[in-house]
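Example with several molecule types.
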Amino acid sequence: MRKFVVAVVAVAAAAGVAAYIDPAYGQAKGDALPVFLTEIPAGYREWRLISVAHEEGNLHSFAAVLGNDLAIRAYREKRLPFPDGAIIAALHYRHVSSEENNRVFGRPQSFIAGAPTNIQFMVKDSKKYAATGGWGFGHFNDGKPGDEAFLKTCFPCHDQTKDRDLVFTRYAP
Amino acid sequence: MRKFVVAVVAVAAAAGVAAYIDPAYGQAKGDALPVFLTEIPAGYREWRLISVAHEEGNLHSFAAVLGNDLAIRAYREKRLPFPDGAIIAALHYRHVSSEENNRVFGRPQSFIAGAPTNIQFMVKDSKKYAATGGWGFGHFNDGKPGDEAFLKTCFPCHDQTKDRDLVFTRYAP
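Resulting structure tokens for the full complex:
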């Protein structure tokens, strides 16, 4: 986890977005609504596929990106912004070489999902998460939410994909 | 398509499995059952995720591997062999660098699903496909099935994963 956080912060810094982080958001004070997810959305492992992703750099991560019904429908109808209630999940694993597959293929060509590393979510609620573009961000390791400092790096980076309503992943047919 | 076929045949050759190909299977003569899929299983794009995969060598392919209900249940219950009716789909895309993502990250780290290349299926029917380990193999480009010579390369390669009932992909939690 620490490694992942460091990598993402490094990425944010490299992209020159760290300066955009607003210290105000992320603080749930008084009766303010929480801006980050504290619980994993139910049933996400049953959701349908949006696409796959692979990050190198310091991450070496392999992702399956899934969406709940509202998210999938919006993607298929090419409807932006996403409607309230849409949830996108990125299931991250290590991107590892498969020795058992390579033995069959006779060459080192096969990469598969290794150990799970984290699951990230974006939940659309244009009122609740108005301060972060209408999206609530979540990051979970072994079921435990990421810390606030880390979660504050999500929005500034996603906010650079405004033409896609802050969502990096495109739908794979 | 030609490039992909060449690559797979090369892989089969490299793995020394070409010699195992039995010229008898694949021939539907008289009232014999067809051993390869001629139609795409309905509704496969709605199926749940098994895992993701990435092949290099000459392939540069990115896959989402999905399963119908019977396949997913067998995986989750760690039940082998797979029951008749189980279907596994591998949705293949080009494994391409994402320039739009890299601009945000500030470094060339992001790979995504590019253009779709083909969809492959394994359908379990221990009687119908007895000659090929109980699995019927299918390969489709733009909805059209692959030719017989190509499809004959599926079984000899998959047959080397007998301990997993001829299925390469393991379930990603």
